[in-house]
Write a structure and sequence with these properties.
The complex is a heterodimer. Chain A is mostly helical. Chain A has one domain: Orthogonal Bundle (MetI-like fold). Helices cover 78% and strands 0% of the residues of chain A. Chain B folds into two domains: 14-43; 46-275, MetI-like (MetI-like fold, Orthogonal Bundle). Chain B has helices at 13-42, 46-54, 57-90, 96-102, 105-108, 111-122, 127-134, 143-154, 156-169, 172-179, 184-213, 216-222, 232-241, 245-275. In chain B, helix 3 runs parallel beside helix 8 and helix 3 (57-90) packs across helix 13 (232-241). The chains are: A mainly alpha, B mainly alpha. Chains A and B meet through helix 1, helix 2, helix 3, helix 5 and helix 6 of A and helix 1, helix 3, helix 4, helix 5 and helix 6 of B.
Chain lengths: 290, 276
């Protein structure tokens, strides 16, 4: 697993082993960190893997391919995809407006972007459910044009979009800030239209950040629970997300099924985490001129 | 802006107005109005009704338990975060990158899965649970379980804030301190801490916000016993499902107020850091 670290190490090792470690606390901080990570993270994860592994392949497969569970994978993945696509567009717009323009209220706008991370998900959940309910502020207006949000998959998308708003904004913002203006100004002064310059010059530098933010938003949305359950209606096969599915199995005291589904969800999110980390590492290297 | 201004993309007044207008409108609809709704609903029975809802015995119990959970979780994760950040930014060793990836796991894993991990291990038929049961120690469906999952869910925040900053600052100052004969504690107290204090503070604030507001993981291990294992977010859910909407929003308004303080704190910390 540590292959990523070994490439540049031999040279550095020579220099550090020659002078010994200068700063104190290596043993202490290594001990505390390993103890904490093993106890808090690795031990419970191993527990789940053993529990799910102990149930036999056939039963495992039976549980995780149950039609109701498969329906919840689909609902979750599609809603998360829709929510992160929305956030790619919205996040790019917000990052652009916050970096490029000066206007009254800008600092407030910038600060409130982080609200979804600061607000507890259950609070977001009941708030969105109330806003979009039949006689809620938004629900009333939307029902007049025949759109129903509460208790439909659209409600799930909105809840997921809300909770993952900051990801794209905060990954694109720094890239836009550090963008060198020369190419852009040259193209504009040569008479290229705004749309052309954006497509040919700006977008190629921005898209890796947009993809990173979108992927983070997608990963977060896959696991979202608190914000979703209040607005989703949670009817089997239609608007049940995967986290809720695990919860339902737990309430039926079907621990093996809950563990098996949780194992699928966990492995998926760990793979996603790894892919995002590797991708981010590459992309940062390229940004730094590597 | 001393240099003559060149025209850049999106500089024309019309595009500018259109983009700012759309951004403001969407932000108001998506983020600001929900915030307004929380307080409008909470106060819909007047201030007296609001006070009555907050001072309800079960709500006060939930506030108390939530504070206890935060008070136990935050210091623990702060100490761990500082040690981990010190380890990965001040030393090179094999497996360093693995550690920084491992620490992201709680961000990637669904809160419900996080709760389940602990329930399986420490529940009455888990390994650790059975062993502890022999000594009559029950962790799940009681407050220690809530603290444990909250520690899991919030452990990355402090380290995530500190690592990029400490990496960027480098270790020259601390190395100079060692040469001058400082002890480890003096080094941390006099050099490292002053350099990282704002990022550390923000990491602690984020940890606290999440510890106070965690819902999915806590709801798996709590058992929702009113007055005993009900944290504030769980209490919000309970009230909402009892159709006590005003009561639910009154309790939610406290959490929303903490969220707003978190945003203000972030703005202040960023302002302080930009002045350094």
């Amino acid at each position: 697993m540590s292959t990523t670290d070994t490439s540049g190490r031999p040279a550095k090792r020579l220099s550090t082993s020659g002078t010994k470690r200068v700063l104190p606390g290596f043993g202490l901080s290594l001990g505390i960190s390993l103890f904490f990570i093993s106890l808090v993270l690795l031990l419970p994860i191993t527990g789940l893997v053993i529990r799910a592994g102990g149930m036999g392949w056939e039963q495992f497969w039976f549980v995780v391919t149950d039609p109701r569970v498969v329906a919840s994978y689909k609902v979750t993945a599609l809603a998360a995809l829709a929510a992160s696509l929305f956030n790619c567009v919205f996040g790019l717009l917000m990052a652009w407006v916050l970096v490029r323009y000066e206007f009254p209220g800008k600092r407030f706008l910038d600060a409130i972007m982080d609200l979804p991370f600061a607000l507890p998900t259950a609070v977001a959940g009941i708030t969105l459910a109330t806003l979009f309910s039949e006689n809620g502020w938004y629900g009333q207006l939307l029902s007049q044009i025949g759109i129903e949000v509460a208790f439909t998959p659209l409600g799930i998308v909105i809840a997921m979009a809300f909770t993952s708003v900051p990801f794209v904004v905060r990954t694109v913002q720094p890239v836009l800030e550090e963008l060198a203006p020369e190419d852009e100004e040259a193209a504009v002064s040569l008479g290229a239209s705004d749309a052309t310059v954006f497509r040919r010059i700006l977008f190629p530098t921005l898209w890796p950040a947009i993809v990173t933010g979108g992927a983070l938003s997608f990963a977060r949305s896959l696991g979202e629970y608190g914000a979703v359950i209040f607005i989703a209606g949670n009817s089997p096969y239609v608007s049940e997300v995967i986290s809720l599915m695990i919860f339902v199995r737990l309430e039926e005291y079907d621990f093996p099924a809950a563990s098996a589904i949780a194992a699928v969800v966990m492995v998926t999110s760990l793979i996603l985490l790894l892919v995002i980390n590797v991708w981010q590492g590459r992309y940062l290297k390229r940004l730094n001129g590597g | 802006m001393a240099t003559p201004k060149h025209r850049r993309v999106g500089d024309s007044p019309m595009v500018r107005r259109l983009l700012i207008g759309t951004a403001v409108l969407l932000t108001v609809l998506l983020l600001f109005m929900p915030l307004v709704l929380i307080f409008v609903q909470a106060l819909s029975e007047g201030w007296a009704g609001y006070a009555g809802n907050i001072l309800d015995d079960y709500t006060l119990d939930a506030i108390g338990l939530t504070l206890v959970v935060a008070l136990m979780t935050v210091p623990l994760n702060m100490v761990f975060g500082v040690f981990l950040a010190w380890l990965v930014t001040r030393f090179r060793f094999p497996g360093r990158k693995v550690l920084t990836t491992l620490i992201d796991i709680p961000f990637a894993v669904s809160p419900v899965v996080a709760g389940l991990l602990y329930l399986l291990l420490y529940g009455s038929n888990g390994w650790a649970g059975q062993w502890l049961g022999e000594y009559d120690i029950q962790l799940m469906f009681s407050w220690p379980g809530i603290v444990m999952v909250t520690v899991f869910v919030t452990c990355p925040f402090v380290a995530r804030e500190l690592i990029p900053l400490m990496q960027q600052q480098g270790s020259e100052e601390e190395e100079a301190g060692v040469v001058l004969g400082a002890s480890g504690w003096q080094l941390f107290r006099r050099i490292t801490l002053p350099n990282i204090r704002w990022a550390l503070l923000y990491g602690v604030i984020l940890t606290n916000a999440r510890a106070v507001g965690e819902f999915g993981a806590v709801s798996v291990v709590s058992g929702n016993i009113r007055g005993e294992t009900n944290t504030l977010p769980l209490h919000v859910e309970l009230l909402y499902q009892d159709y006590n909407i005003v009561g639910a929003f009154a309790a939610a308004s406290l959490l929303a107020a903490i969220a707003l303080l978190t945003l203000v704190a972030k703005a202040i910390v960023e302002w302080r850091q930009s002045r350094v």
